[in-house]
Design goal:
- With 185 residues, the protein is α/β, with parallel strands linked by helices.
- The protein has a five-stranded mixed beta sheet with strand order 1-2-9-8-7, covered by helices on one side. Strands 3-6 form a two-stranded antiparallel ribbon.
- The protein starts with 6 loop residues before the first strand and ends with a helix.
- The relative contact order is 0.21.
């Protein structure tokens, strides 16, 4: 059923069956893409055990502590608006296309990114020894708190992008921003 698809989106999914995880791994390894959003239904222990560990892990990073405001609190952090090198975010280097820093993030998961790449794979290096590994997670965007918001990694021929917050309005106003659709595309 995934064969004609180019992208699978998991949005606040509690957990998956073992056969579904195997299917998604095969889909991504074969060249598909997976976009995973966090949320209040996510079973953190299950995600970390079944999707964030091992050699064929689907997620770039384990989920750590929930961060941001508690119930009723709207203390916001924002996306750091920097010069983006990744092709998916380059469009936002021109502020006429939207300013990612305009979005407010109220809750997010801290992602346990160890030894992240901070640049695309095709970045030039003086020495091959300085080039980060292809399997290391790449931080695409960070929050002002310093926490990664968007992280990607390759699995076989495919790509997984993990988002530390929801795709709905419960934890962020990102979906209400005019640049949200181009960001997701």
């Amino acid at each position: 059923t995934l064969a004609p698809s180019r992208l699978v989106v998991l949005a606040n999914v509690a957990q998956l069956s073992d056969p579904t995880v195997a299917l998604l791994s095969e889909f991504v390894s074969g060249g598909g893409s997976l976009l995973v959003f966090a949320g209040n239904k996510v079973n953190v222990d299950w995600y970390n055990k079944n999707l964030s560990s091992g050699s064929g892990r689907l997620l770039p990073s384990p989920l750590e502590a929930l961060a941001g405001g508690g119930a009723g609190e709207r203390t916001a952090t924002r996306i750091v608006a920097e010069r983006f090198a990744h092709p998916a975010l380059e469009i936002f280097n021109d502020r006429a296309n939207g300013n990612l820093a305009d979005a407010e993030i109220w809750k997010w998961y801290r992602l346990g990114v160890s030894k992240p790449r901070e640049e695309p794979e095709d970045a030039q290096h003086d020495s091959p020894a300085l080039a980060p590994g292809r399997d290391a997670p790449l931080v695409l965007a960070r929050l002002e708190s310093g926490d990664p918001l968007l992280v990607e990694h390759r699995l076989g021929e495919g790509l997984v992008v993990q988002v530390a917050t929801t795709c709905g309005p419960a934890w962020t106003n990102l979906p209400m921003r005019p640049f949200y659709v181009p960001l997701m595309q």
